[in-house]
Amino acid sequence: MTVVKTHLIELCCAMIIASVCATDVRAVSTLENLNTAPTKNNPVFFAVPDTFDAAKPVRVVVYFHGNLEDETFAHVVERQKLAEQVANANINAVLVAPYFDDSVASHVGTFADTDGFKKFMHEACEQLAALAHVPVETLMRAPIALIAYSGGFGPAKTLFQNDIDIDSVLLLDAHYGSQQAFVDKAAAIAKRKRGVFVSAYSQDTNYRAEQFSEQLKKRDIRFETAVPDVFTPGMIVQQFVQGKDIHFDFVTKAWTRNPITDFLQKTYTARP
Predict the structure, then answer these.
(1) What is the pLDDT of residues 90-134, one digit of tens each?
(2) What's the domain range around 171?
(3) What pTM does this model have?
(4) How far is CA 21 from each of CA 75, 81, 111, 253, 269, rounded to the nearest angstrom?
């Protein structure tokens, strides 16, 4: 079974690298197994743009995928153009995307432990350091932009509840369950006036998204209802995206095409 899974991971990695080359994405990418991965024997996807410059400010993008049904993790990474979207933001960012399980919302694994994410990020930064030719300490000090899609709300909430230092947050149709952890994180970002909290949602998560908005209003926390052209530190954005059956492609088409690129550019381009 282990041999089969190893060959599958190698095949998936080859597929992703082939996709990167085919779409002219400027990134080096790989799938690796880490000892500290949130769920055992599941790979982690890494990508580093070939324009990466260790002398410039570095950002780390962490992506939490949604529940998987008829796709493999590798297919999702390819279809959602994760490496391409991060590279095209041109903000000197590296990407880390752990695979949790097909039902990610209820399988957060070791991230439920107080120090689980910190241990994971240390090992992930060691892997990225080798790819990017930069000291591990540089990556460990870099601000983290967390992006969670759909079922990725599960591990995202876990990090917020464990008070992990996340610089900026993007939720892509991820308003499920209680909204308390999201509201608390958005409020913390607004109070410290560093980073941004952006949420885009469709009809699929409309009910819970409205709860999020109402809780912000009750706490007298100001938020925008449309993604603006320019972000300001501490900004909270909550935008409804109209359309029928748009949840599946939400990572590549939300308020704009390639929303991850747009989010990262507006969050970090104007910052030192």
Answers:
(1) 999 999 999 998 888 888 999 999 999 999 999 999 999 999 999
(2) 2-268
(3) 0.91
(4) 15, 12, 33, 22, 26
